[in-house]
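Before a colleague's protein record goes any further, I have to sign it off. Alongside the sequence sits a line of tokens, each denoting a local backbone shape. I want your independent view on whether this chain really folds as the tokens say. Where you disagree with what is written, explain briefly why. This is what I was given:
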Amino acid sequence: MTSDETVPAVGVRPLDEVFAAIDRVNRRPRPWTGFEHGVLGAYRWAAGAQVAAPVTAAATAGSIGPCLAQLLAECQAAAVRLHLVRTQGADHTYVLGVHRALAWLCGLHEDRP
């Protein structure tokens, strides 16, 4: 690869790393928890496999998946929703999974969920 070529990425993660993360979640034994559903939903949306964002249900503007700004906005929306569901006593595991996956994709932490 020359220095002019770019590696396809989802957020700050190389595309092949994201596909490996999707595969890793898909191989987990079922039934999946809400956390695992949230992680997979975030990964699939970020990779362009689903149109609606996992928390806001906003449509992706790009034809190949969301850009980093959209990923960060959805991550922030997940953080807000996480706070709301915790204060309301609702099950927060799905939103937590979405938030952790998007934060990893955006490079906010290195711990892949």
Q: What stands out?
A: The helical segments are 15-26, 34-46, 68-88, 93-105.
